[in-house]
Amino acid sequence: MNPPVSTTPINVGVIGGAGYAGIELLRLLSRHPLVTIDTVTSQSEAGRIVSEVFPGFRGALDIPFVDPRDATYDQCDLVFLATPPGVAMKEIHLILKSGARVIDLSADFRFKNQDVWEDVYGKKHLASELLSEAVYGLPERYRERIRTARLIANPGCYPTAALLGLLPLLKADAINPERIIINSVSGLSGAGRAAGSRFLFAESQESFKAYGLPRHRHQAEIEQEICSLSERPPGVLFVPHLMPSVRGIHTTIYLEAKRKMDWQALYLDEYQDEPFVDILPFASFPDTRNVRTSNVCRISVHAPNQTQLIVFSVIDNLVKGAAGQAIQNMNIMFGLEEGMGLQQLPSLP
Amino acid sequence: MNPPVSTTPINVGVIGGAGYAGIELLRLLSRHPLVTIDTVTSQSEAGRIVSEVFPGFRGALDIPFVDPRDATYDQCDLVFLATPPGVAMKEIHLILKSGARVIDLSADFRFKNQDVWEDVYGKKHLASELLSEAVYGLPERYRERIRTARLIANPGCYPTAALLGLLPLLKADAINPERIIINSVSGLSGAGRAAGSRFLFAESQESFKAYGLPRHRHQAEIEQEICSLSERPPGVLFVPHLMPSVRGIHTTIYLEAKRKMDWQALYLDEYQDEPFVDILPFASFPDTRNVRTSNVCRISVHAPNQTQLIVFSVIDNLVKGAAGQAIQNMNIMFGLEEGMGLQQLPSLP
Amino acid sequence: MNPPVSTTPINVGVIGGAGYAGIELLRLLSRHPLVTIDTVTSQSEAGRIVSEVFPGFRGALDIPFVDPRDATYDQCDLVFLATPPGVAMKEIHLILKSGARVIDLSADFRFKNQDVWEDVYGKKHLASELLSEAVYGLPERYRERIRTARLIANPGCYPTAALLGLLPLLKADAINPERIIINSVSGLSGAGRAAGSRFLFAESQESFKAYGLPRHRHQAEIEQEICSLSERPPGVLFVPHLMPSVRGIHTTIYLEAKRKMDWQALYLDEYQDEPFVDILPFASFPDTRNVRTSNVCRISVHAPNQTQLIVFSVIDNLVKGAAGQAIQNMNIMFGLEEGMGLQQLPSLP
Amino acid sequence: MNPPVSTTPINVGVIGGAGYAGIELLRLLSRHPLVTIDTVTSQSEAGRIVSEVFPGFRGALDIPFVDPRDATYDQCDLVFLATPPGVAMKEIHLILKSGARVIDLSADFRFKNQDVWEDVYGKKHLASELLSEAVYGLPERYRERIRTARLIANPGCYPTAALLGLLPLLKADAINPERIIINSVSGLSGAGRAAGSRFLFAESQESFKAYGLPRHRHQAEIEQEICSLSERPPGVLFVPHLMPSVRGIHTTIYLEAKRKMDWQALYLDEYQDEPFVDILPFASFPDTRNVRTSNVCRISVHAPNQTQLIVFSVIDNLVKGAAGQAIQNMNIMFGLEEGMGLQQLPSLP
What we know:
The structure is a homotetramer.
Chain A: E1 10-15, H1 20-29, E2 35-41, H2 50-53, E3 78-81, H3 88-97, E4 101-104, H4 114-121, E5 135-136, H5 139-148, E6 151-153, H6 157-171, E7 180-186, H7 201-204, E8 209-210, H8 217-227, E9 236-242, E10 249-256, H9 263-271, E11 277-279, E12 297-302, E13 308-315, H10 319-333
Parallel strand pairs in A: 1-2, 1-3, 3-4, 4-6, 5-6, 7-9, 11-12
Antiparallel strand pairs in A: 7-10, 8-9, 10-13, 12-13
Helix pairs in contact in A: 1-10, 5-10, 6-8
């Protein structure tokens, strides 16, 4: 049985509100029935009104971006961090001291192992004592721990799509964990608002390429979560690509089955109560268009022969892959209806 | 003072639910707090589940498209028609007889003058006795008549953007009505779901062109409404163009001022209480991105010299230009909060 | 030593000139220094001037599309067939009888094994006696046989990109042929000019999805060519995807290495004299933009660990994947400079 | 009679070769049969190989970008300047002293009147003594003077499209020069390679807006050329817009006719010998797709009523609007076939 649903309003702060994950948080939070946006910070846009920088917010969010150095969080029940790697670990103590709970959309608290983090991100971790406390904010895996968490490490976009595609198989010990190939494709909003000339419309249109080899940062994140469900150390090959689309992540996972199973039943069973995971009919094909601006992850399974499996998984990288999942976590943490403020349907056309 | 706000749920039917205006209606109606979608018809998709044809609706609208010949509207408080020209005038009597009120998104009831309609649409009008009763559903002009209307003729997409840009000037008799140039640009969703190979991604990408001269059908609609505010017959030159974008209408209106005025004050004054018209700062530039998927029309005014005016006006052609405006009209007709179900913000990125 | 280069002009016919491969042939052939386009046929556009249907040809190709039933090829040295599957096998005898050599861009003569063809294409082959004579027109593999061929089966777009990426490894027996995963992504021009509403701009923009499982037709074509270089029957998993781009194929091939090698040297060595295969620096990333409208295939190799290889290969699906490769074959067949008429560089921006 | 055609090769330098106009020059020049690219400079990319920065040039242009401070032009017959405003006027004396002729793609020498230039560009002109010598490089207007010019001021992209649309009417004194409205739309490559986050793919996709009012710099350029053909000072309203396309300029010109004429005959007559101006059938609609990557300007004329004219004119902003027109000028200056190296057809799809 679910706990009773709260209707208490919550005050939130958003740190790093002018990056793409930050704007998306603001877009969703400003229409959330029980949220008041108390404070929004941005280094680059400090002093300007949100709706002047982003005219889509005119009439909906006409407060100024605050300089991060001037911000206080005493009024906040919850603070979202949508900052580049390495910022959250510097700010976290101050925020927690103010009494607010924290959802960090950056990678600072996603790893349990400090050495791995420092190796992947190439710097010393400044708040490593919080790594064990932080809860990896994938509700489909850690919902109960999320409810009571003080600090959520919101998952990366690629890991969200990949892990939701893998979870049922890992839990059922149905695949060889040493041979997992994750072929991912992302829209260009993943590169962020500070992206350079390669990501100009004039250069990105009609272009598709891989990047990130030999080891994209999200690979370690995916491996950590696979490890938690597998006895042997996994062998993951993760190859990200960029497509000429603003939003969307499409993941094609190639796997070796350990045995025959009713794969469709396995997935339907695992996710039957999940509000934001949709298992398509067996052997169908999800597309990124039909999750655009929504918090849904759509998944389908194919068994092209006796030994191989293919799993497709799609999300909107900025919603289920960032801001939407963060709000889902917020709803869980504060006892609200889990889908509150996240009901927008993708548009077609 | 506004009338008291109703909270009574309403049952609606959507005729022609598988075209682009129809799907957009379904997208917005399925998230409207007080609407139940009773019936959706489609000739081409009859018998199929809405969410099978359009997977974005999975879990949100899992009812079948009904064959129009089998549909009844006795349970409906309101029926939307999102059909090609010439269908509504055939179906209207049956629907009205069922007791439902009607919002017709097609052009069948937009003209007061039967001859003009027959000339523009090239066929005989089969329900001309309703032309005088039908209310042109532009809330910013006819809100009071909309409240009590039985039949709404929902405006065309180009006319909505153009007329909202022109209304303050026409009411103030501030421009020469004989020299109005309306240069409009539309996204390709305007061409509809049955569009041919010219509208394939492979041919539309990187293409921009004008069309519709010497006299696009929407010109007569614009002229009728200008006439209603002008003593002299207007001289309108309307040139529509297509751009490689899914959504959006951008209108550039060139005008001759009759006198000097505080143009910004004129616009702010006219639209101060309007929930869906946003006047940008003087001499700024609205873009279509920042109204995408929203019901807002953004307008700005420029006075580049003593005698000329330029007005820019942008909308999402499928929302304020079609389905969103229809729902705004529904809210007015049924005494609901006017913006109910229409609060979605445009996304950036 | 290369044979002496011919400068004799050649007369060509193009059957199916109004499809995307056909138009691309016309675009390239009309600027080829030694080609005269004698006849262009099209069922759908018969009687219309090429440059009326496709205004980009104004002043360059102002001849009419001929009805296929009225066309004769007596004046042609060479006839290109750019027709749907099943047409070439019906027309081939008539054309060969006229004395013309033939390059068939469709799949009708790509398979050596009639049973496989009939299984894959679901119909009886009507010219199976020519299957053994037809030469698979991949110059990097069969150049010498192409020189003297009467009938060329021009390779499919996906197979071209995949096979050029695989050839050096197969020839060196350096990979396990039972575990080849080919993850391909194509632009939407691959769907053709008769594609339906799914490929409208309004529905394709911002969409990415897989398709074609469990067994796309091109898989058998890839397998046939791998077989010719491998002792054991290969195990190929081929998964095509569609991206929101007009042109381009990007192939990511996952392989198991049998041993350690200097992979870069292997590729450089194999393709050192090839005019249209470009091996990028080791561990770099080709993009589709930088082969757009050109006949070049760019390839790079990655060895992320001891046992796995990743090969990236990109082409323009309509040039090296269709019309450009056909013209490369024509140049070889007629003793012309192999790159004649194929020197256009991709544009950026 | 045309002068005899030269076949003497020419050595060229390109200053500012890493901007969009510069790259486009390199793309076209590297395939020009009689051109050797001697020197390419770039401040930002100095020291790097052209084909490393822009992989599309691999095998075609593998020379380094030279630091502008180290470049000499003694070997050059011709130097192209593709630099931001204000650079050419500083470098011009040094280059001319080396004996090279010059085509400046920037605005530095486009104005005859120094005061106008200084007013529009907001700085002092440092080589104003050359303003009267410089020839405005619009071949359709100044071909004879271009032949012998030492210094060409290559026209801006918007002015090229607008002026080619206006020339026949101005020469025939057929329109009221005081009421010229030029509504232009450009692709985003016009914003250049150093454009900021507004021009990222993630923000530009699905966006359309006007900009540049009250007075874009190209307005003065257009006015100067109209003046040269008109007795009275013209009244020009020029409104540029940006569309989500890489390339293309589409111009819609609204005019008042002084009298009735056979407009189509006027245009056909004016441009009958022009290799790069194509007059479409009366009342048709040119699109930007069908001039993409080509040097052609396509024009059509509409006379919607007795007194008004509409002229549509489309070009590729980087070809006829910049690099292609520069090469056309080069061909004229050096007595080459005027269309040499400029025969590429636009691609569809």
